[in-house]
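[Structure tokenization] protein backbone as discrete codes

[Encoding] learned vocabulary of local backbone shapes

[Begin record] amino acids and matching fold tokens:

___
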Amino acid sequence: SIPRLPNCTEERRAGAVSGEVAPPGAMDFDSAMQGVERPTTLMIRNLPRKFAARDLVGELDLYMSRTAFDFVYVPWDKASANNMGYAFVNFIDVPLARFAFGILEGKDWKMGTRQRAAKLVPARVQGLVGNLERYAAANAQPDAGHFPLVFHHGNYISLRTALCLYCPTAPMALRMVAGPDAGAKATPPPTPPTPSLPPSPRLDAAEESLFLGPPGL
């Protein structure tokens, strides 16, 4: 898993997970969400251009536990070797999204080399399943090294596992399970009401390269 950074106290993490901590600026959340009902997925703009998903997780680690969010995606511009300047994060519930908004909105990035004030708005697609389905529909194959990071109760799970658990009929999930012709031949596994996951899921080769690279975030 991505190494946890020590900068955030356990008390602050606990407050973030419970939604009990209300940072300055959280009162602006409702107006910023533009009437979106129960917003949990935020689009974060003005991302440092070299930030990958693991770097954004490192930034979030400064303020909250990984049990607070379950989907982190930083779209990447292959032509320029930079990200697109924005990211999508799905939080577990609205209070946690509100907390993240209050912490990050208008603030400079702690881990960026250039200071750019973060801007948070509601994402067009909301929820973990919705974002996984959108990614699976838009990407014929995962972009190695820059695919979404998915967490289950704070533990990283591979994209393969997440798609098979939450979106078993998605074409990408079918191909991952049974090969390139799986979309026509395979019977997708049923979606369990409560996903049961191994304690330490194996990483795919591309994911091993991502997570076992140079230490530090």
Observations:
- The radius of gyration is 17 Å.
